[in-house]
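Appendix C reproduces, verbatim, an entry submitted by the partner laboratory led by Prof. M.T., so that reviewers can inspect both the input and the predicted structure.
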Amino acid sequence: MKSILVPVSSTENGINNLKYAIHFASMSGAKVYLINLYKEFSKVGQLAKVNQLMIEENEEQLKEVLSKVDTKGVDVMARPIKGNPFEGIARVSKQLNIDLIILSPQSLDIKEERYLGNTTGKIVKQTEIPLLIIPRDYLFKKIQTILLAFKDGNFDKEKIFTPLKNITQLFSADLNLLQVFTPDNQESENEIDSELLEMKNKLTHTENATIFQGILEHFQSQNPDLLCVIRRKRGFFQKFKEKNVIYKHEFHTSKPLLVLSGKME
């Protein structure tokens, strides 16, 4: 894990996420890229001055975030990026070969009944890069136990578990697997990928209506420091085919959430 991207929306969330990224990077040796995004207007007349003003305001926000965080010697590059949140993050991630994006589940002004706001939800839905979603005001702690919840044990995408394996090794963490059998499970889904079985410390099977209900049933007893799910067509985030927002009654967690990307068409 060599490069971590931290997109900034609000200053408060930016400070919290950068602190978490710094701890992560200080252990892995990664470089951290801190960005915020602005929309560029026409360069004609007064709008050119508006563009310059927006760049300056974004630069000031990044400086404020950096001033509130002890970087612990980690190399942090900060700059405003032109573009909307989705296109800009995708473009920068490709240019910088980003291995992990650390972001907040929602902005500060979002309604409390939502777990994922529209922006984060859309990023989860569209990006192929692993995401680490950090709850608001969550303080970094050593990851000792990871819970990976899934329904279908077959994973066709190459290297899908590489980020999970890196984090497990980085923290010497235990990896517990939770396979949730739902009413629409196919027999072919019950077999579990051999690579994943080799990584596990513990395997639990449960029968529930949804993967989220399976997590609710076993979350307290397992008490993981990190929850991991797979984004794919018939998986945890299948609701994203219809919308970007996820409400807390549909899913939420008070722990960091690692989202790995499988295929979701």
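The mean pLDDT is 85. Additional entries are available on request from the coordinating office.
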